[in-house]
Each structure stands twice: as structure tokens, then as C-alpha cells.
TrEMBL record:
Regions that span the bilayer: 26-46
SUPFAM superfamilies the UniProt entry points to: Pectin lyase-like
Keywords from the UniProt entry: Membrane, Transmembrane, Transmembrane helix
Protein name: Parallel beta-helix repeat
Parts forming coiled coils: none
Regions of compositional bias (Basic and acidic residues) in chain numbering: 1-20, 58-102
Keyword Acetylation part of the UniProt annotation: no
Region (Disordered): 1-23, 53-114
Amino acid sequence: MNQQNHIHEPEPERPGADRARSRRRWWAVGLASVAGLALTTVGVAATPAADAIGRTLSADDRSDKRDQPHEGDRRDDDGGKRDDAKNKSDEGKNDKGKGDKGKGKKTATPKGTPVPCDADALIAAITLANARDGAVLDLAKDCTYLLTADIDGNGLPAITAPITLNGGKNTTIERAAAVDPFRILTVDTGGNLTLNKLTITGGQTDSDGGGILVNPAGTLTTNHSTITRNITNANGGGIANNGTTTLHHSTVSRNISGTTGGGIFSTGLLTVKKSHVADNTAGAAGGGINSNEGTMLVEHSRITGNQTATSAGGVELFGGTGIVTKTEITNNTASATGGVLANSGQLTLRAVVIANNTAISGLAGGLSVNPATTTVVEDSTIKNNTAAANGGGIFNFDSLVLRNTKVIGNQSGNQGGGILNGPNATLSLFDTQVVKNIAVTDGGGIFNSGGVVNLNTATGTIVIKNRPNNCVDVPGCAG
């Protein structure tokens, strides 16, 4: 059920007190009267009513046993197996303390503190959890916590402690559409937030992080959660990560950024596992993900249907390091560079499929390797990508190595249907197939524009069945 905020002003504490005091101070101190919380840390006396959701939030409350499969994860590459056993390994260990009579008996995992389906109750619970150095909070199922007021640019108090928010079936935290813009939440320095089975939606801001902002030294982990339909005029429509962010079995979809990172913008450590980044839009680069001078690790995931007005419809690595494994990057669009843009830094792609991406008016339908970049592609497939200009499959400006990789069925509107190797660039192929690519003008397979191409045919590299020809200025290639 949807539950909107019903905010009641607290009673005056002394004659002449200002009843119109700011909501922000009241949230920090007085929300116990709304939510039934014993905010003893800020001077509010405990009452019997506080037991509703206000029992002591001890360190034991931080354990989380809720990590069940989510419907949206049934399409994972591992056939739907849920192998987060490592994350759960400590939860079921035997506690053989002196007080236990039965050896080997499992200790029950403490439950979280229930939070009623009321946005004010959630605000109060987070406020208390921050004050008491963390908590596990169990949110209501079939509930939308509808946020209506701005707390320092967010709908919820900034996270400054280890806090776990457990959702369930149809549990959503949403900004009300008719209120002033604000993002949903911020993980501040020292904060460590875990989201389980939650949807974060409706955030809107002029600064980074339409849905969630992770500040330096902050940590965000999402499990079986969805970040969707958030908007920023800056970077990171869904998530802006300047600290550490890890996504497990999660979806980042239909978010919008005015500049980079329609789905995710990251300057810190970003890890995406068995997740889906889909249908996001960026005004500049990185429709799905933009990693800017950070570290990006993506595995067993799908980056699909994202778009930008300029470059890198799917993923952009701008400086730093990126490793992408066993991931599909498909059906992304941009003016230039439809799939992946390595825009300086070091990028490694292993067992990756880059397919059906489109550079609408520019070059590099599938993969672009820009100057000051080293890229290695192994055991991968780059197929059916399209560029209006050069490099239907790949445009290489610097250093690119392809190992055991297929470049198949790509098209360019000018030169290099499969690959265009630019001036001063070095392209090395090992046991690689460049087959059935098409260029409108020349170099259906590989067009070398003054750089160096090493086919290494003794390793099994072949360049065949391309149109109108296989190669231009490539030693050892039968034109």
C-alpha cells in the first residue's frame, strides 16, 4: 500500500517556543513522536510505545539473512543459480559458547527492526540507526515509502553508519512526484549502506546522483534491488559513486543524466555482478556506465538498450582501469561509439559479447579505443554493430590486442567494416576471425590508415569473406 508522509508538528517544549521551527531539526530530534522510536541519544525519553519499532539497535542487529532470489534474475548467465554462499557463510556458523548445552547448534540470526509503512517512521529509524552506529531495518512488504520533504538535498537522512535496509515483495522508496526535487539518499563518508530487495525511484536533482550519491569513503551494496527512473542534470542518473559501490543481482534502468553516466557514474571502485544496466540515457557520454579515473569491474552482467547524445551508448572508461568479463553489451546507441568507448586508461574485455550497437552519425559501432589507451580483448565476439562513418566493429586509435576473438557481420558507412586502425595505432590479432563485415567504401575486413597491423596468421587468424574487400594496407592479408 502506498503511504504518504503525515507530518505533525511537535508540541512546544517551553512557552514562546517557535512552533514553526524547521522540519530538518525536527527530523533529527523529534520524529520519535511520529514513529514511536526511543531517541535516547538525542534526549528524547523512552516510552512503552517505543517498542513498536524502537528496540535497542545493537551490533547484532546488523546481520542480514535476507538474500533470496529475485524474479528479474532468472535470466542470469549462470542459469539462475544463486551462489552468494560466500556472503552467507558466516551467518550459519555454529556458536559453541560455554552457555550452549547443545554442541553444534546454530545460533539464530537476529531479526531486523520492523519499520511500519510510513515515510516518517523510516526517516526516524535511519536517524536513530546513525546515532547508534548502525542497524538492520526491516521495511514493510507491498509498501511504498513516499517521500515528500527535502532533507539537505535528499529524501532520507544521509547514511553515516553501517545500515541495512531489508525490503521484500513490492517494497519501494520513492520521491512523491508533486514535491520539490531531491535525490532519494546519500551515503556519506563513513556510511555503509546495504539494500536488499528494494526499489529506489523518482529521485531528481541538479547535482550528481539522481537516485543515490555515494561520497568518498562511503560504501553502497545492492542485492536483488532496482534503481529506476531517477533524473539528474549532472552525472549519474541512477547512481553517482565516489566511494565504493557493489551491485549484485540488481537492475539500474531508465535513469537519465544531463552529462555522463545515465545509469551509473563512478570515480571510485565500482563492481557490477550478475546485474542489468538497461535503457538509461546520458546527455554526454556513457549511457549505461561512465567510469571516470576510477576502477570498474563488471562480470556476468548485461548492459543493454542505453543511449547518449554524443558517445559511448553502453560503457565509457575514461582513465583508470576497467575489467569486463562474461558480459553482454548490446543494442546501445550513440552519435558516436555505440557500444564501448575506452577513452584513455587500461581496459580488458574477456568473454564479452559486443553486438547490435549503433553509432548513428559517427564512428565505432562496437568498440572505440581512443589515444592514450591500452585495450585487450580475449575470447570475445564483436558482431552486427553499425557505424555511420568508419569502423563498424572497431575503431582503434592506440593499442589494441585481440585474442581468440570473432569480428563478424559489422558494417560501416565508409571504411573499415570490421576494423579501422588509425594513424600511429597498433593492432595485433592472435587466433582471431574477421569475417563477413561490410564497408561501403573500402576495407570491408580491416582498413589500416597508416598504423601497424600484426595479423599473426600462424596462430590461426583469418580475414575472409568481407566486402568489398578483406583488407587495405595490411601485410599478409589477401585483399
